[in-house]
């Protein structure tokens, strides 16, 4: 019987090929070395309700042109791959950013950068980041929808708490003669009717809005500049009010605005309401006709800035008024 003799060089060659394939497979599943790109997940910006901005950098293209790069993410896998959800941004080496969209609120996601060339895919380190809850609770347990408008996160309904976020009661004054003298924090329900807060929220004087304790923890009463940011994002003061107002007309369905509720689309989800106001004289005005919202920014010793939505135009007007007025409040996330 004829013996078959192994050729030493062939055995070495086969062994090297096996080793090369094993190493290549390992590199394809980790953060890149050799001939696959080397990529880093360099960080992320503040996560919003359903979007996260991530940053990455391809530090070495592995000797071959990077044909696709981006971020892969998962709410289940700690080290997501390109077989999971992903967003792509650009080609080649260097820095890149991308916005992950369509995320679920109050969900932990694992995200890492990737880059692919003709030899395979390299991955950066994985970051764990949690999106914001889509429901907010105040200190009294009252709930509010949370909405994202551009780069800001807002309450989707008017504030209706009667306590500061430290648990202390906000003084409430029904007597109009007392209200007119107040230079301390105070709140009230429209027409002194506590049932009004279910729909319209409470009315607060500016001294309450400016305490730093009115909003739930992690939130605050928006500044004049933050209101400007919102209005400008929506196209400017002349048209933003229409995009912010809840739709519908009083007496038809669930509408709350006096006709014509001009231009109301609520396309941004703000759902602005005509909660009226309490004047510095202690009387109540403009229910179903106007919605007035405090900023935390004063104009001078006696007045502060607010935004006005109206039944008869599409504007979001910037006005200053006596700090003794009772207006609605919408909070914004820190």
Key structural traits:
334 residues; alpha+beta; Immunoglobulin-like; 2 domains; 5-stranded antiparallel sheet; 3-stranded antiparallel sheet; disordered N terminus
3D architecture notes:
39% of the residues are buried. With 334 residues, the protein is of the alpha+beta class. It is 16% helix and 32% strand. Residues 1-33 have low confidence and may be disordered. The protein is built from six helices and 20 strands. Strands 3, 4, 6, 7 and 8 form a five-stranded antiparallel beta sheet that branches. It has two domains: 32-130, Immunoglobulins (Immunoglobulin-like, Sandwich); 135-333, no CATH class.
Task: Please provide a brief summary of the model.
Helices cover 16% and strands 32% of the residues. The protein is α+β, with helices and mostly antiparallel strands.
- Helices and strands, in order, run as HEEEEEEEEEEEHEHEHEHHEEEEEE
How many whole angstroms does the radius of gyration measure?
Answer: 29 Å
Helix content: 10-25%
**From the helix content, strand content and strand pairing, which structural class follows?**
alpha+beta
- Main β-sheet, in a few words? 5 strands, antiparallel
What is the averaged pLDDT score? 89
Low-pLDDT sequence parts: 1-33
Number of helices: 6
